[in-house]
Amino acid sequence: MKGITKRFGELAANDQVDLDVGEGEVVALLGENGAGKSTLMKILYGFQSPDSGTIEIEGKPVRFSSPRDAMAASIGMVFQQFSLIPALTVRENLQLAYPDLPMVPARGGGRDERLLSHLERLAPDLDPSALVADIPVGQMQLVELAKVLNLEALLVILDEPTSVLTPIETKGLHERVRQLAREGRSVILITHKFEDVSSCADRVAVMRHGKMVENRTAAGLGARELSSLMVGGAKVVPAVRVPPPTREVPLLEVRGLTAGDVFSSVSGIDLMLAPGEILGIAGVSGNGQDVLGACVAGMREVASGEVLLEGVAVQRGNGGVPDPTVVGFIPERPSVNGVAPDLDLSVNLALKGIPRLPFWMAGRKPSAAESLPLLEAYDVRPRDPSRRARDLSGGNLQKLVAARELSGARKLVVACYPTMGLDLSATQAVYARLFAHAQAGAAVLWISEELDDLLRFAHRISVLSHGKILGTVAAEGADRNLLGRWMMGAAA
Amino acid sequence: MIPSLALRRKTLAARFPWFEGSLSALSASLVFFLASLIFFALLGRSPFLLFGELLSGSLGSTYGITETLVKTIPILLCALATALPARLGLLTVGASGQFYMGAWCGTAAVLLFGSSHWAAMPLMLLAAFAGGAFWGLVPGFLRAKLEVNETLVTLLLNYVASLLVDWVVYGSWRDTSNLGWPATISFPEWVKLPFLVHGSHLHSGLILALAIAVALHVVLSRSRWGLSLRILKSNRKLGEGVGFSWTGNVALVMGIGGAIAGLSGILETSCIHGRLESGIALNFGLTGFLVAWMAGQHMIRIIPLAFVMGALLSSGDALQLYAQLPEATAVVLQSILFCSVLATGGFLRRGRTP
Amino acid sequence: MTILELLLGILLSGLRSATPLLQVLLGETITERAGVVNLGVEGQMLSGACAGFAVAAASGNPWAGLLAGVLAGMLLSSVHAFLVLVAGANMFASGVAVWLLGGGLSAFFGIPYVGRRIDGFASPDFGGAAKLPLLGPILRVATPSVLIALSTWVLCSLFLYRTRAGLRLRAVGESAESASTLGISPTKVRWAAILAGGALSGLGGASLSVDLVRNWVEWMTAGRGLVAVGLVIVARWNPWYALPAALLFGVVESLTLRLQALGVTISPYLLSTLPYLVCLGVLVWGSARARSKGGMPRDLAQVFSKTE
After folding, report:
1. In angstroms, what separates the C-alpha of B164 from chain C's closest C-alpha?
2. What is the pTM of this model?
3. How far apart are CA B32 and CA B339, in angstroms?
4. ipTM of this model?
């Protein structure tokens, strides 16, 4: 790829970007959120066309007007948000992507050998007639990979593949990537994790603010060097671990919490937090975190159990009375769960106070003047209180919800993946405010997938797996391997 | 869209707040004219002559205007009855069923208490409100508690309500002394609202309907309740989390909406027909739905649109009289208008740069 | 008559009654599987019924009538497709507009045919077979519409689950985004699905006017199209279940007709509410199950929760 440029309005998502990948080479494409990596790959895969620049495959210039063209050129992409269709079976998903599928495709019984050959190598004990909705995430990724290999892809693009995998599944993926390279295929690995780079990358290409700033071999690259490459020497003030709580009397008690539905649930959750304590919940998403967070925050109805805040039951249902004014709740997927998309930012920020407004709101309506300082403090862009929430990007919505929930006095803060999609400086800013609540004496329940951050900043860590707490340890000096095993579901 | 045109449109829209609205109204009207001209031409009639008849018949005389306003009342009320639940995100097409139930219950009240000069009208109105509200609460309940799609429920209940009216009109409430069209006895004079224009059908229900529209608009835009509806519609879970009640509000909007449609039912029965007959709801329910849609569920914008629809419908009578075109012509014209609005609305939205 | 013969009789007359509904139900299932709701099927049925009757009356050939019905339905459904896929209008509003359009146009053009009767399909002489105890009633009921409807039922179901095109249709309905990454064009698929729905609902309407009742009255379909939209949910978007769903409605309908004929003193109008109420009941039951166990195409679920 040479001189690729792509603008969206004023913003140059890609600015004169060059990237080349050799045969059998694994290139790690790094950069923070918004650096332009996804745009570049979307261009390579035919979703977008560049404003200027050329793409050459094996020396021959090509033009992609749709993913179909890219697939025909033997390029395959495994997406971060998988493009598998959950309601269909594994076989059907493979069939959809298979070139030259007959009009009445075969359904098992050995006649679809060629369709399933790659899948059988990658995941031998996966039943092709299973619904994608029923198989674990790690296997979904293998199905995606098989889909791509079925196209005889010579270039495979993997978009943040390890973000949803447990440590053991991650090792498995690294092995597969190396295997692909040994077969002579080229791999572009989009990631921001150091271990992906160190385990399988031959070269590293770093993007920052739309430009390609670094392109060198991966050999000898250290973690600190890597993150400074991505951030480009920007001033980042790292957060410091808050001193642990001194009082023993619990502020928050969760007893026997059972809730959820067929898609996600928790059962028999017991937790205790002292004032000023940060409890980290580790685990791969999809094990009931969303239900846990929502129920503890009083946003979702429980089937049984209690959530006691200072001895008062504040769960929704089962005789409790939720109190949204003293609880700060940052839900997962804030764009869906945390904002009213059709309403403007000032209403969204003032949401918690609206039930207490008088019937005729008149001058007491949420105003722009009150919202602007909050938008400034949390760096929400665009800085326009009259914009509708749905116009904001995912990262800005995360900051908006954080702004609403973390401002004001709180007794309990429940944060689910509070820094998802945020770059390093925004992440540190949110952490600073989150931990400040702990310092002020609130109980903080922090659900995250970033095990390293949890180990650094939380006081204790519990692992949630298949809806149950498998164990709790002190964060300082915790054994990563033990935690990894718990995350895989092994009994404590 | 050509970049320079798009830019010009954007600046105009920023300068004049009424620009986008006028643009869509204008383009929709244009498409409507063209499409109906084609329709008339296909019938082998002179399109311009027919259009002339249409306009003069509905708006060209006092009689025309009063007839137009007469038709506007039920359309306006049914549109309001659809727009209110839509503010919560509920899609109901049940206005005609609620219309019939309002007529049914109101007629029952008249048959029971009609002899009392002072109590009959308020009781009739109350009964109509109750009947319409009930017919709205059933789908509301099913949606709130069982997540059943309210659109389908209201559609089915429309047919049930219409049959219930037929049941009594052909059965136990039938006025046997009237050998003609099956209907109930004529309503006494004191249950009819006073007439606005002497000698016409135009009754003061028009004032009532306008008042309801204005009241709804003021309450929805200025009150905390209106804001809570917007929040619940935009994100139900979030609204509930903040403390607003989804089920309570569903009941409220469906009940009030149903009551409004029920009112329109009894007004048509009592003031226009003078007795309960079969099939009086015509297409008011569907028309109301589409008027509400075209108005963007905005209570005040509904008023002129309902008027336009009323004009189209009453022009159907004129076309029938002077051009020997069947009644169904008005329905065809209505649907052409709706399709034009939907089409141009869609295209204009697409062409708008954010 | 034995109990078995009685039950069979009810079932068969229910099947006859259900035939138009079955066609529409299959058509709307295909459409909704692609992620599009079409409330205009009622209008499509009406236009099919009117066009079919007119052509059959004018030409004396009922097959031509059925074909005309198919074409009329497709023509009207293309309006819906245009409004939703090209103009980007909301699909519920567009459906209602198409419904009104179909009703208005069919009422308009159907005026000369109100009250007329046609001969419909000539019933073949089965000879002795018609007198057989079980086979006889079946043969008597088996008008061409019924047979066409039954074969459509089998063909649609096989199409959806066994062919490449059906797989792509389902993929589009589940997630248009994922489908487009696979190189499938959701717009093209949806156009085809809407037109197929139009063809089938037009056929259903024509079956009603040309074959089953053999006359034309405006708004004669009496909400069958809308009942079909409801039954799609009950059938969990699975065409195999379309037959039992339609049969339920048909059986109730023919039962109410029988009760009226037997001189039961309940008002015919009250009895006529039964099919709708039964459909409502089944819809409520079906909705609860569909929600807890899934079945609704994903993209459709998004449509139902967003009303703007």
Report:
1. 7
2. 0.85
3. 8
4. 0.86
